[in-house]
Amino acid sequence: MDSNSNAGRFTGCIPSYGDAGFCAAVMDTNRGSWQRPDIVSRLITKPNMVVVDLGAGTGYFADLFSKQLPEGKIIALDPETSLITWMEERKKRGSLDNVSVHQITENDPGLDQLSDNIDLLFVGYTYFHFDDPVTYFSEKVFPFIQDKTVVAIADMAPVQGQPRHTVSAQQVIKEMAEAGFELTEEPTTLYDQYLIIFKKNLNR
Fold this sequence. Notes:
27% of the residues lie in helices and 23% in strands. It is built from six helices and ten strands. The strands form two sheets. Strands 2, 3, 4, 5, 6, 8, 9 and 10 form an eight-stranded mixed β-sheet that branches. A two-stranded antiparallel sheet has the order 1-7. Strand 3, helix 4 and strand 4 form a beta-alpha-beta unit.
């Protein structure tokens, strides 16, 4: 990605995603107090939804979706082996029978391998990981989701000096438009966080 397309990004330190236990200790402790779990309920539109959690990490949101959608199906995707193992163990501990965990590569979410029609593709606090989000979403996501699929991106707004990577809502909207997606409603701001809803732009 060129320097101009990186203009909205803030670079800071992040925990090592190769150590799932450290990740969970850093990110999941008291997480409900700062990462707005009510985002999940905002995105649920029917009881039997198929939800893809792209970049599921420790499984925090997959867990929430699973419990709020007992009749639904949650597909948790992540490239890190340690996080996949952690999520599998979390699934067993929590009896999250409607969650399936799949390891993907950094450059391909493998959506073409899924047999289900996707109601919701959720990208929660991981958008900054995409080195080239325009190419990723236009080539690896757009062709393999349905016209009705909702793409929801949630993240924290950039604050200079904040010890993590962030991307502004404006930058996300710009890049997703370039990838072939359009806003379905105005972004929702939740304190220092945002939730942006997209669908495929069929007129691109």
